[in-house]
Structures are given as structure tokens and as C-alpha cells.
Amino acid sequence: MNGETVNSKVVRQASRQPRLTMAAKAMAILAALIVSAVFLVPRASLLAQDEKSPAAGPGVESVALGFDGAYKVGYWTPVHITLAGGPKAIEGRLKLVLPDGDGVRCEIVDDEPFSLAAGDKTTLLRYAKFGRIGSEISVALVDADGAAIAAPLVMTAGKLAKAVPATNQLVVTIGRDAGVNDTLAAANRQRAADEQRVAALIDDAARLPDRWYGYEGVDTVVLTTSDGETFQAISDAQLEALDRWVLLGGHLVLCAGAEGEALFRTPGRFARFAPGTFAEVVQETRTGGLEEYARAERIDAGQSVATFRIAMSRLDAPRGTVEAHESIRQQTPAVIRSAHGFGQLTFAAVDLDAPPLSTWGGRSRFLGRLLEATLRRPEESELSRPSGQVSHIGYRDMTGQLRGALDQFAGVTPFAFSWVAGLIIVYILIIGPLDYFFLRKVVGNMAWTWVTFPLAVIGGCALAWYLADVSRGGSVKVNQVDLVDIDVESNLLRGTSWSHVYSPNTQRFDLSVDAGQPAESAAAESVAAGQLLSWQGLPGDAMGGMNTETAARMFNQPYRISSSSLPRDVGPAELTGMPIQVGSSKTLVARWWRKTDSPRLDRLVSRRQTRLLTGTLGNPLDIELKDCVLYYSSWAYVMDRDLAPNQTVTIDELPPPRTLEWHLTRRSVDSGGRRRGEVDDDRSLATAWNRTGGNVPRIMEVMMLHDAAGGATYTGLGGDYQSFVDLSAHLGLDRAILLGRVENPAAELLRDGEPMADDYDRRWTYYRIVLPVAAETISRSNP
Question: Which of 100, 413, 449, 514 is the most exposed place for a label (fewest CB within 10 A)?
Fold first, then answer.
């Protein structure tokens, strides 16, 4: 009976099995249909809406970044956004969301509203600063209250354009191609794929920035003019942006041959870039000067001598250094290198983008000479880096060392990993073998572990909390370096501030900068004419570097970078809701500029043979300059006195100068008569550069004249990120630089509109005054 019962149960279960399987399949099919209805049907609806643009509503149609498909991380870059209108006209603003240098999302709110008619299209030019190679960018349309007008468009920036590392070089050509790509290709042969110098070509003036900081990531701009169409199409705003970028530290290579008349006389908008007075366009038949400059073959090879001509724009009274010239009836400067504010202007009086130079085999070498200020700068692979040290210090650029030095705050003592590991080992010993032996040998009752073990755990947690609290300090702290440059010839002032804000607790900050505290003459404007305030990243591929992929999202709500409401030439100058994690700091950089009217108290003359200075030197500021050094050519005059406001001295009163390289590298005579590790052909010893050192004044001294100190050969670190700080090139362009330290700050960081004066831990302020130097005149009269 029991057997029959069992068998009947087995039969019934077997008969149910197919029905259960069929039911499971039915449920799976039903679930699939539900998923399709939830996800695929809306998607199909969206696709159908995309096919009908009027019903799709307004939105972002396309985004173009940078220059000719290339942009640099860590710098402001132009963003061209094309909008497509919907069935109704709209008004709004653009909001861009992307990660900063620490991987924290920030939103850049547009300060220029737009209007878009129904069914219309328009392209808007905005600016963004990308913090990581793998940045993701979101572009949204919002109304005046910040509410979304349309769904945002989210893209990976690296798929829209080539992301160039912050320390690589980017050369932009405006106009016809002058062979920049070929020149850079020759220089890139020995470099890795991620260390290539990049060339970009812009042949449509509409793609140019209309604000100077749109060029911030560009190392050199090459402007060709033979077609006449491109440069004439440059708007006044675009030309002003290019001019200001050069004045604030950029490098412009201007090729002006046949179109010299249109460039410099009628209407003369480009006359500001002429390092001399335009005379005429001449037709030269001799090109020996150009060929010698390029160290290349003849330009007229294979051409008829009777018909060969090359158009050149002749300038009279050239300013700067004439590096090459041609002569037939009178000398025609072919290449002139001069200062333009804090930047450089390289003038070539020929058209590299037109025959016969466009077909000349030596064009790449000629252009390489024009670009040598860019090409000679080392890439990361060329830097001296002992095994393991780069990964240890986490940076390869001088800004990284400055960042590390400014991250040291009084009362904040980060625990080294060795201490943490040691405390963990001690804690394990206490709750393990020490607890066992204490109860076994001393107490004699192991049951007491129910008391000793919780006490050890509580004590360990309390100690960890106490040490963490003590190490973090108890208040917000700020370290800051201000560097103010004044060019007395152009009456231009520019300032740069590096600020590190430390917070012991996780909190958000509303920050701005007050750069209206000039130490120069009272006749200067009291408020900055323009300014920028944003985050600063760490170049390189170390942990937290900008060459790494976007970090994990740490904060749900992005902070805001927006423009000031001042009706002046300002850029993004306010940070709203910027978060700082517990026991962490944020690195900020501010830049500002204005015209000044400081008195001229200098009259410097350079002797022809020795390049030593004579004449008078003065302090044009309304504040005392301390620790003064005067730099010129290859000399450094270390002053034995401070300069009071408006005080003048003669060069003959100063101690004898040292060689510039000797002063910057702190050379000293070795008692053994030789450098350590070198042959004794110099009998001097350069102080080795400490790449982990935190001496801020010493770091700033070398950053300000990095190339003159030997560049990466001396420091083992590059100076490419924020290379505008280095004014070494001006020492060879008939310029002297007076450097001094002042007690008063040049800029003040504001929180919620109030100065953070009580939060400052350490601060340094330096002024550099760039002075013109006249050449010594030699009398031809006989005594």
C-alpha cells in the first residue's frame, strides 16, 4: 500500500513538471514584455521625436571643443555649442557641468543669455576648463531661475576632441597652413604617443575665441596673412582677445609678406603687432639671410633668376632683436623677436604659406627657428627622474612642487603611513596576545575577556578619533602666494595668486577674490579691470593628476563657477558652494590684469661689449621693496639695500653683479676645486635642487626664471604648466627685471563677500617690474 502511494505521488509530480515548466516560461515571456514596454517603447518614442525636429523641442545639436579638434586639460578652452530651436521661441542660459582637477563636478553658468527663435539654429561660443583627460561634459539649457528648458546632453570630452595633457605644447595656426604640422612631426619622432606636440589649423575666423583666456592653453599662435581673407574677417573682439593674450604672456608668430600694407596701414588694426614702423612691401631677389637663418638649401633653386621675387614687408626702426635680414638696396629685417607686454612677438617679413616659401625644402627648419621658444621646452619623458622618485613625489612640474609646499599648514600634521601601520600593529597585539597573557598569567580568569576586549576596542577607537582630530587642526586655514608683474613700457599690470584653502571639516565655500589692493602709484585704478578665479589641477599621471581618468563622484551637488557682475572685462571670478572634504585642501588660482600709471624712475643702458648695465633704477611703487634683485641678460645684481617708495639708485652704487646662472643655482666654490661628480673645469659647485623641498621663496625664485636657471636640466622638473610665470626670454629682449618682496598682500580671498584675513596661515607677495633697456650709443666723432 505504501509502495502504491509513493508511486502515485511520483506520477503526479511527473505530470505536474511540464505544467510548471510551461508556467515559468510564460512568466519569463510576460516579464520580458513588461521590460520592453518600460524601456524600449519610451526609447522608440524618443527616436520618433528625434525624426521630427519641430516636435522634439529645443536642445543641443552639437558641441565642438578647442581648436581644430584639440584642447588642453587644466586650461580654459573655447566650446562652440550649436542649438536647435523647437516649436516655440525660447530665452535662457547655458550650463556646463564637468569635473575639476580633483574630479569634483562643477558647473559653469553662462553670464550671457541667448534667444532662439522657433525652428531656428544658432552656434554659441562659451568657455570651459576641463580637469581630467577622461572628462565627461554635460550641456544644458536653463531659464533665468536655473530650471531646465530641455534635457541635458552628456558626452565624453575625449570623444569630441583630442585631450592634450597640460604640460604638452599646442601650436595654433590662424589662416593657411604654414607647415607647422610637419615641423612638429619632426620634433615628435622621439616622443611617446601621449607626449606629442600638437598642431591645430583654424581657417575660419568664426572659430576663434573672443576672450583672451580662450587661448590660455595655447603655447604659440602662428598668424599667416597671404590670403587676406582670414585675418580681415577677424572681429574687433577676437583681435582684442588675441592681443590681450599676448600681452599677458602669450607668443605670437606673425608672418606678413605681401599683405603688409593691408595689415599695418589700411585700416591698420594689426599695427599693434608690428615691431617697428611699416615702410613698404619690397620684392627681394636675394634670400641668403633666410637660408642662413634656417641653415637650409637655396629658396630659388630650380627657378629663373630673372623672374624670381619674394614679397617682404619692410619695417623701419625695428624694436627688439633682428635675428635675420635681407638687403638689396637697403637692409630689410626678415625676422624680428620682440617683447609685447609680458608676451613675445616673433615677426617674419615673409609668407610661409605662399610660394616660393610654401614649396621650399627648408621651410620646416625655418619655422622651427621661429618656434624655438616652444620646441626647446622639454616633454615629461625628457625630464630627469631618478627611479621611483617621480611616483613618490607625485609631480613632474614646478607647479606641483609649489602646490606641495603650500599644502603645509601650521597645526595640521598628517600622519605618515608608517605611523598608521605601527598603531594598527600595536592595536592587534593589545587585543590579541597581550590580552590573552594578561588574563591567563595575571588575572587567572579568561572570562574577564568580555570586559577587557570591549575596553581595548573602545580605547583604540577613542585614540584614533583623538589623533585624527588633533592632526586636522580646528579651523580653516589659507596659504597664498601673490605675484604681481608691472610692465612700465605698456603700463600693464598682471597678477597671479595661488591659494590653498584647508578645511578641518567637510563644508562648502562661497569664494571670490579682491585684487583691488595695488601697491603701485595712487594714480592706478583701484579695482581690477579683469580677473579669473578657478581651481588649479595637478599636471601628470600620478594619483590625483589631470592625466588620470575622472575620479569617483564624491559630492552629489556640483559647485558653481560664475562670472562677476562687475561691468568690466572679467571672466569667471566666483566659486559658489565649492566643497572641501574633511581634513583636505583645495588649490585655487586667480589671475587679474589692469592698466596702471606708475611713474618712470628708470633709465637703464646696456654696454655693447659686456652687456652690463649703467644708469638709474627706481622703485615706482608706494610700498617698500625688500630683498631686491635686478636681472638683465646673463647678469644678476643682488642689492644690498631695500628700496623705499619712489627711491632711485644708480647702478654704480650696487655691488658687482654675478652671473645669472650662478645666482639662481646658488653656486659656490668647492674646497676640492671641482664640482662633486664632475671634472674640475669650472671650480664651482651648483647647489642641487631638492624636488621635495618646501621652501616657497626658493621655489618661486626658480619658477620666475626657470629657463635661465637651466630648466629641467637643473631642477629635474618642467615649467610648462602656467609657463607665463617664467620671464627668462625677456632678459634677451632688451628688458631688465627688478624683483622684490613686499609685506602687504596684493589680493585677498573673500568668503561670503568678507575677507578671510583671520584665516591666513602663511602668505608671500612678490613684485616684478619689467624695465626697458636702451643700447649704448657710440659717438663717431674723434676726440
Answer: 413
Label residue 666 by pLDDT band (50, 70, 90): confident
Instruction: Quote the distance between the C-alpha of residue 416 and its chain's center.
Output: 31
Kindly state the cell numbers that stand for 66: 578647442
How does the average pLDDT of the chain come out, rounded? 83
C-alpha cell at position 385? 627622474
pLDDT tops 60 at residue 623: yes
Residue 209 vs residues 162, 530, 592: alpha-carbon distances, Å = 18, 17, 19
Query: For the chain, how far is it from start to end, CA to CA, in angstroms?
Result: 147
Q: Tell me if 659 sits within 8 A of 638, measured CB to CB.
A: no
Pairwise CA distance, residues 16 & 339, whole Å: 93
DSSP string over 651-690: GGGSPPPEEHHHHHTT-B--TTSS-TTS-SSS--BPPPP-
How many Å apart are CA 192 and CA 381, to the nearest integer?
Answer: 8
**Which range has the top average pLDDT, 32-41, 84-93, 342-351, 461-470?**
342-351
Map residue 141 onto helix, strand or coil.
strand
Do residues 278 and 325 touch, judged by C-beta distance below 8 A? no
Query: Cα-flanking dihedrals φ and ψ of residue 19, to 5°?
Result: -65, -40
As a whole number of angstroms, the distance between CA 178 and CA 175 comes to 9
Q: Could you tell me which residues are beta bridge partners of residue 90?
A: 116
SS3 content of the chain, % helix, strand, coil (to 5): 30, 30, 40
Matching residue, cell 581630467: 132
760 neighbors 732 (Cβ within 8 angstroms): no
Q: What's the angle, vertex CA 177, arms to CA 176 and CA 183, rounded to 5? A: 160
Where residue 562 falls (left for φ over 0; alpha for ψ -120 to 50; beta otherwise) is: beta
**Would you say 167 and 134 are in contact if contact means Cβ atoms under 8 Å apart?**
no
Alpha carbons within 13 A on the beta-carbon side of 75: 29
Helix (H, G, I), strand (E, B) or coil at 297: coil
DSSP 763: E
48 or 63, which is more confident: 63
Give the per-residue pLDDT at 459.
82
Residue type at 725?
Answer: V
Phi and psi at residue 648, to the nearest 5°: -120, 150
C-alpha cell at position 699: 621655489
User: 545-601, pLDDT tens digit by residue?
Assistant: 888 876 556 788 899 998 754 444 567 889 999 999 988 899 999 999 998 887 888
* Residue pLDDT, tens place only, 126-147: 999 999 888 889 999 988 888 8
